[in-house]
Each structure stands twice: as structure tokens, then as C-alpha cells.
Write a structure and sequence with these properties.
Elements: H1 7-10, H2 13-24, H3 31-45, H4 47-68
């Protein structure tokens, strides 16, 4: 489908090699586990950005309800 993501869409070659090396060394069972770990760590590291973003999104959704509701 058009939603398929390839490995080159996710990471540049250098980053892909680093993740693959960690899997090869046995630090992760597979690429998915490694990517999941680093995504979670990135989200934790940027938690303030996500909190602000979610707050703004809730405000936008609330305003949309006011416009849509007669």
C-alpha cells in the first residue's frame, strides 16, 4: 500500500548501521525491538514537547467542537 515505510524512510545509512550493529551484538533481539526502544527513549527525552503538543491539540479539538456545534 501507499502507507508502507521502508528502512531508508526511517533512518539514514549510518544510523541504520548503528541499529543493526546493536542487534548483531545481541543487545536487541531484532530491528523492531531496537527501533521501539529508541523511539520510546526519544519520546521520554522530549516529553515536554509532547505534553505541550497534546495540550494544544486538545484546545484545537475543543474549539472545533464549538464551531461545529450549533
Amino acid at each position: 500500500t501507499g502507507d508502507d515505510i521502508t528502512e531508508t524512510d526511517l533512518l539514514n545509512t549510518d544510523d541504520w548501521d548503528k541499529i543493526s550493529a546493536l542487534v548483531e551484538l545481541g543487545l536487541f533481539h531484532n530491528i523492531s525491538e531496537a527501533l521501539s526502544f529508541f523511539i520510546k527513549e526519544g519520546i521520554k527525552a522530549k516529553s515536554d514537547l509532547f505534553e505541550k503538543s497534546l495540550s494544544v491539540l486538545h484546545q484545537i479539538n475543543s474549539l472545533k467542537k464549538h464551531v461545529i456545534t450549533p
